[in-house]
Amino acid sequence: MSSAVRNRSEDRAGLRDTSNKENHREKEHLRSHPSSFRDNGGTFLSGLKSSSTRAAGMIRDGLFGKAQRTGTSPEKEVVVDDEHYVLKVINLPLVEQTRKTRISKRLEDSRDKTEFWMPAFPWRAIDYLNYKGCDVEGLYRVPGSGPQIKKWQRKFDEEYDVDLFAQDDLYDINIIGSMLKAWLRELPDELFPKEAQDRISRECAGAETVPQLLIDELANLSPFNYYLLFAITCHLSLLLAHSDKNKMDFRNLCICFQPCMKIDVFCFKFLVCDWRECWKGCKNESKYIEEEYLRLNQAPPRGLAEARKPAKEEAPVVDDQAASASDVSLAPVPDDASTLQENKKDSPPAGANGRSPAGPPPQLTINSERAGSSDGNGMRPLSPIMPLSPLKF
């Protein structure tokens, strides 16, 4: 068609009329006969889009682990590993920790008093290290495995008491050594009050033998502090006696334990090097025993119900319970205590630098049938009479 013909107005009008008629017919047709392409094609495209979205989500979740929980899925238990476990028990104050974890719940059922007055962890650790660690070179200087330390700390924290001798997966003694040092370092309590240490150092300066003032200050401690310090220094004294093998001489013991125990070098020297002479009895023990049994709603041990008369104020043994620093017998005072009193009268008065009255060293009587392994005399290494020969430094 030529441009002249296309530009004619009548032709353009005719074309518009024809186009309008065709559009009208198409709309009428669509209304009467729905298009399968319109319906099915739209559904197809919509389904394709939905499928592609779901596929992309599955790939993303599968590859990168970002799957989200649905509202109906159950909550999974949160697992805390040893590294992030927060201690709840073995970092408590000494008295509270002892009451929760003590090995023996009654003093008369104990193999020794420390089972009643000490928390389970330091008792088990010291007992284990006394048996297995005295001849180990590098003990306390070689750190244990960090993850293993966390593992055993959690075990004690959750179970309260763990018999270390019965464990098959405890392969390194340095784990227990590191745990004991960490436990002492984190203990909220003072083992030996700083004021008492300062007074001893000031008034007994230059002393070459165990000052009576040190013995008296130790006797004034609560039994919780008394027997814990008693057991720790017993362990250190035993290590010092075997220093030719373990290389833990006095200097190394000071480096490892003075900061943990917060005890000055003057008192630390007597507690470790002259350990036997420091412990003559805890004069407050009877009162604390009654308090503990009242808390447990139990009758006190036999022999404590009767009133007891304290000995003379100047005597190192204040009451019959303290006649022996660690005698588990609750029977009346043996004759040795009266002998000590007589020796006290006959001997010259002990000054600030004087030695305590002569007498047998404190002994920790143990029921050998309950104690298991022993040295042949029914004594465990936790006992102060181990080694049996006198210690010389």
From TrEMBL:
| CDD domains xrefs | RhoGAP
Which InterPro entries has this protein been placed in? Rho-GAP (IPR050729), Rho_GTPase_activation_prot (IPR008936), RhoGAP_dom (IPR000198)
Annotated spans, Disordered = 1-44, 304-393
Keywords, A to Z, come to: GTPase activation
Instruction: Fetch the PROSITE patterns from UniProt.
Output: RHOGAP
Biased composition range(s): Basic and acidic residues: 7-31, 305-315
Q: Where is the signal peptide?
A: none
**Start and end residues of each Rho-GAP domain:** 105-300
- SUPFAM superfamilies, per database record: GTPase activation domain, GAP
The cellular component terms of Gene Ontology attached to this UniProt record, alphabetical and capped at eight, are: cell cortex
Q: Where do Polar residues bias regions lie?
A: 364-376
Q: Does the keyword Membrane apply?
A: no
One Pfam family here:
RhoGAP
Q: Which GO terms describe its molecular function?
A: GTPase activator activity
Superkingdom field: Eukaryota
GO-annotated biological processes: signal transduction
Q: Which Gene3D superfamilies match?
A: Rho GTPase activation protein (1.10.555.10)
* Record protein name field: Related to GTPase-activating protein beta-chimerin
